[in-house]
């Protein structure tokens, strides 16, 4: 008889505990991969938030919209050459500043005719660090304007033109300025509408975002720890119960010449097969959505099961066989 | 002089029962030679199973010495005791002690799983053995579906597959009817004459089987003459 036949017959002999162990394996595998996915998504979201808040900038919410004179008054307070952008729900309405060098025009890409009504199209702009293309048109030869891109990513915001002075037709909800919060507050404190403004210090917002993510990471780690502990308790109880019922079988094997290490290996192999393989199924269910680092779950979860099984396996292998044989 | 297969000298063994220590074996001597057919008689609880467990290296004596195939066994680590057991001992139990969901063949081969090296002719040996035991038509059946007599034959086949140097039988017919008991005696009598067999029983039907006969008396063995 080879090992596989022996183990297979054992599984047939104990369908209930085999299924229970398999169920634990699948559930733990699923939860581990879901948890890793949540952590990964939070990490991505945190990175997105951080990139949306460059540290050298301040966003100013406008609870009551400013009229054109008030906006002009506000802009007068900024040092010459400062990059700024009036936005509305992530859409840049108009802006002023210098074009960073890492962006370049892409020649020969046609634009939609309606995009060209505001000026002469010069082509698309791409970044060396991003695959995203965004339409930019030259407005009356005085600068570039990004045309109404909702959800505009930061990589495009920073390419905004340097000399746009068009008259906007829509009222902005927010202004973003490349100045730190303390600097800008000292410049606009005396404006009559200052009290209506609400400042978002990007540096502070980043700190909050990092803190939030750290808190979430700690919570997820604690949750994973508690789940791992609970799994260990449940799994060990189940294994101990099963091994207690199989005390006689192990005594019999010992009487036939099995060494304690043979018994230990047999138990660990059985646990590995009955929980480890199902846990891989659970993990595989979400594997495509997991980051490459998450694939290590395929080793960690079955490894944890084996670690949980080690003390009861060691105990079962160390029991003196003669007592169980007498009782059997 | 040929050295004995097994030799117990001044062996004692006791077990705690509650707060008391109950001596089971006291200053016991037993020497087993090649070809011996030893029957140990005694009532239930006299220490027969304890003695067989000591001979099978499943238990250790409190005092005294045990030599198996020339190896002093008292201070051997468990791994070496298991190896000696796998290579030298065949065990037959009163309650058969088979793995119920495993097939007849799997049960018979169970002992060879733990041998350092199984003989290359073991498949042929297995076929011959199951034929001799009248189990050829049952080899792939799970043993839980077999009768008591058939299960005991599987147990004997397991003990005799890859012949051991010492065969120990603990009440081998205790759970069988007369017809099956006779069949079991017949099978054991037909085994290789060189393999020593120690049978522990309270059944006088085993008297004719014995070449040496012992009676338990207060934890010791008294040899009786065999007429």
What does this structure look like?
The complex is a heterodimer of chains A (328) and B (227). Helices cover 55% and strands 14% of the residues of chain A. Chain A is an alpha+beta fold. The longest helix of chain A is centred in the C-terminal third of the chain and has 44 residues, at 202-245. Chain B has 227 residues and is of the alpha/beta class. In chain B, 27% of the residues lie in helices and 28% in strands. Chain B contains six helices and ten strands, in the order E-E-E-H-E-E-H-E-H-H-H-E-H-E-E-E. In chain B, the strands form two sheets. A six-stranded mixed sheet of chain B has the order 6-7-8-3-9-10. A four-stranded antiparallel sheet of chain B has the order 2-1-4-5, with helices on one face.
Note the overall shape of chain B: globular
The helical percent of chain A reads 40-55%
Calculate the terminal CA-CA distance of chain A, rounded to whole Å: 24 Å
> What is the string of helix and strand elements of chain B?
EEEHEEHEHHHEHEEE
Largest interface: A-B, 27 and 33 residues
Structural class of chain A: alpha+beta
Overall radius of gyration of chain B:
17 Å
Determine the mean pLDDT of chain B.
88
SS summary, helix count of chain A: 10
The amount of helix of chain B comes to: 25-40%
- Molecular shape of chain A: rod-shaped
Quantity of strands of chain B, as a count? 10
Largest sheet of chain A: 5 strands, antiparallel
Q: Helix- and strand-based class of chain B?
A: alpha/beta
